[in-house]
Amino acid sequence: MDKILRQALLYDFYGELLTEHQKSIYEDFVLNDYSLSEIGEDRKISRQGVYDIIKRCDKLLNGYEEKLHLVQKFLMAKEQVAKIHELASEILKAEGAPDEATEYLRQIENISNGILEEM
Amino acid sequence: MDKILRQALLYDFYGELLTEHQKSIYEDFVLNDYSLSEIGEDRKISRQGVYDIIKRCDKLLNGYEEKLHLVQKFLMAKEQVAKIHELASEILKAEGAPDEATEYLRQIENISNGILEEM
């Protein structure tokens, strides 16, 4: 997985366990795509200082994932729900699905879609 | 939700963030159903001491949930996957499902069942 995407995912799951200061800097770097220098200028800290804080956040977030594995679990569940969504859509696309099943299949499509949007 | 069930769920999600000592005592109380006195005897700590550790663990685990809401998210997703499983089973039970759909529906049943077992 792309490093920034992984950082964003870890932040999405465990970010609330960081301090406000850490969150603000990590967000600017990972989500808002600012450079170390830009982040440092705004806050009057050195580029190296910003770098150290981001490394520290990476370490904390990865530590939570190593202990809890919740990102991994969510990604696996998400993949499986996507498969369900795909299967339901395939059946609906095929001819000959009986009317009583169609309504249920649309519900399966909607529910799986809802889960994917929340995740 | 039943208090012990909630404690067990919170422990299942965030237990790895407790110390080994806290985990061992919390497990004996919540999962193994030992009394405060029994837990204290084994470890040569007072009943009150055990009680304080359990309260401390409750507070930590609830604090993680207040920040991360992962138990809540998982429970909601689980409920929705259970609904998908039920719908797929209903269609399969009904007469007239065409053969090409049956295979896909069985896959939906299996995948949703797999997700529920993992969660």
TrEMBL record, chains A, B:
It holds the Pfam family UPF0122. Signal peptide: none annotated. Gene3D superfamilies: Winged helix-like DNA-binding domain superfamily/Winged helix DNA-binding domain. PANTHER family: UPF0122 PROTEIN CBO2450/CLC_2298, UPF0122 PROTEIN YLXM. Might take part in the signal recognition particle (SRP) pathway. This is inferred from the conservation of its genetic proximity to ftsY/ffh. May be a regulatory protein. Belongs to the UPF0122 family. This is UPF0122 protein EV212_1017.
